[in-house]
Amino acid sequence: MSKKKDRMFPRFAAYGFLKNLRFFDPFIILIFREAGLSFLQIGFLYSIRDVATNLLEIPTGVFADAFGRRKSMVMAFIAYLISFGIFYICTDFALYALAMLLFAFGEAFRSGTHKALILEHLKISGREDEKVSYYGRTRSVSQFGSAINALIAASLVFYTGSYRIMFLASMLPYTLDLFNLLSYPKALDGDLKHIPFKDIWTQTKSTLRDFGRIFTNPLALRALLNSSFSGGSFKATKDYLQPILESFALALPFLLLASEVQRGAVMIGAVYFVIYLFTSYASRSAANFSEKFSSLGRAINVTFLLGAVLLFLAGFAAGTNLIILSIITFLAFYALRSLRRPMDVAYISDQIESRVMASGLSAEAQLTTILTAIFAPSLGFLADHFGIGISLAVLGAGLLAVYAFIRVDER
After folding, report:
1. Are 86 and 168 within 8 A, CB to CB?
2. Assuming Cys at both sites, which of 171, 227, 311, 400 could form a disulfide with 396, CB separation 3.0 to 4.6 Å?
3. 3-state SS, one letter per residue, for the chain
4. How far apart, in Å, are the Cα atoms of 344 and each of 145, 187, 290, 356?
5. How far apart are CA 88 and CA 102, in angstroms?
6. Quick check: is 136 in a domain?
7. Domain with 78 in it
8. CATH code at position 158
9. Which has the higher per-residue pLDDT, 138 or 362?
10. Is residue 317 over pLDDT 70?
11. How far is Cα 374 from Cα 50, in angstroms, rounded to an integer?
12. What does each C-alpha distance from 241 to 9, 127, 221 come to in angstroms?
């Protein structure tokens, strides 16, 4: 099938672009710090989100595979919208925790499911050999959305002087994305069995058995662990760039008539815009990058080691007040994540059956959330007591230590 006649690609691309218009993302730690939360409390909020996501991953993955991936995505976006509303209206830790639970509900229904929709489309189209390049191109558009997100978010903060307004603003693109998802064809749900309600448990057990077999395959298990350690470390650390950028902005003699919030917003928006332009290009280049290695497994192993080194270096630079080096290293860390993500999806999908693809990719997301839930409060504790630089460097060193146990097969 010609790429020019691919009517789904624009919809897949629109999904990723709109999904990444989370205007609060570039400032989330600063929002929580403004509300009076410590880094440890912020870490606990991340853990609440990730533990809840973890608990919901298997049942929501089963739901997607057995009863409809499109329905799963719609439920995810409804949960997101309610969560954004609570974040906008409320300010205390308990209600933030409730909002995080709803956000986790959305993450659990979404994670792995949309990738399964894309992979099902490629299967129907007879284009399964394009997994890395096709997913890389859709992710490239989503990362470009993140770049635009940074500029819009910075503008909102600069002109309103408020961080929380961004939760309200984020509801608009998410509502549009909800309608986009409703337009997906039923064929992307895959091979579903229309069964009566009394047989739902039988169908669920059958899908769970297929899901369990994923963990009996050593190659698949190592692929899941490698991807999850990489993803978990990224999710737990990526937002620590925000306070680094804010402190750097306040030390510079620019926009002296603006408030500290406005000055920080300009710096953060500009840097995140550049970062996501790099990550957009990185996602688009994933297929070409992976082809430079003898195998996809080799590319995954090399990028894992490089990510650990970059994280350690970012922490070392922040801890020794080499702020510009820390920012540049973070930029490379973000780009590397986008470069390897399409490779992870392709490698994992080669190890599991297509009919349990959503469950398999949800398993990877589940392991990622477990690790993020462990990393986040640990980093918060270290950041409160020893500084952000030490916390990042410790995690980078830890990743290097576990590499021997989670390296994937390179044959």
Report:
1. no
2. 311
3. CCHHHCCHHHHHHHHHHHHCCCCCHHHHHHHHHHCCCCHHHHHHHHHHHHHHHHHHHHHHHHHHHHHCHHHHHHHHHHHHHHHHHHHHHCCCHHHHHHHHHHHHHHHHHHCCHHHHHHHHHHHHHCCHHHHHHHHHHHHHHHHHHHHHHHHHHHHHHHHHCCCCHHHHHHHHHHHHHHHHHHCCCHHHHCCCCCCCHHHHHHHHHHHHHHHHHHCCCHHHHHHHHHHHHHHHHHHHHHHHHHHHHHHHHHHCCCCCCCCHHHHHHHHHHHHHHHHHHHHHHHHHCHHHHHCCCCCHHHHHHHHHHHHHHHHHHHHHHHHCCCHHHHHHHHHHHHHHHHHHHHHHHHHHHCCCCHHHHHHHHHHHHHHHHHHHHHHHHHHHHHHHHHCHHHHHHHHHHHHHHHHHHHCCCCC
4. 21, 25, 11, 17
5. 14
6. yes
7. 8-189+196-406
8. 1.20.1250.20
9. 138
10. yes
11. 9
12. 32, 38, 31
168 belongs to a structural domain: yes
pLDDT of residue 382: 94
**What's the start-to-end Cα distance of the chain, in Å?**
30
Residue 4 burial (CB < 10 Å; 0-12/13-18/19+)? exposed
The predicted model scores a pTM of 0.73
pLDDT value of residue 191: 64
1 in any annotated domain = no
CA distances, 242 to each of 16, 42, 45, 216 (Å): 23, 13, 17, 40
CA-to-CA distance for 246 and 28, rounded, in angstroms? Answer: 12
CA 255, chain centre distance (Å): 33
The percent of residues above 70 in pLDDT, for the chain, comes to: 86
pLDDT tens-digit readout, 273-288:
888 787 777 777 777 8
Domain tally, the chain: 1
User: Residue 200 pLDDT > 60, yes or no?
Assistant: no
Task: Determine which of 9-18, 36-45, 192-201 has the lowest per-residue pLDDT on average.
Answer: 192-201
Is residue 279 included in any domain, yes or no?
yes
* Distance of alpha carbon 264 from alpha carbon 273, whole angstroms: 14
Distance between CA atoms of 143 and 121, rounded to whole angstroms?
A: 21
Q: Which are the contacts of 195, defined by CB distance < 8 A and separation ≥ 6? A: 202, 203
pLDDT value of position 78: 93
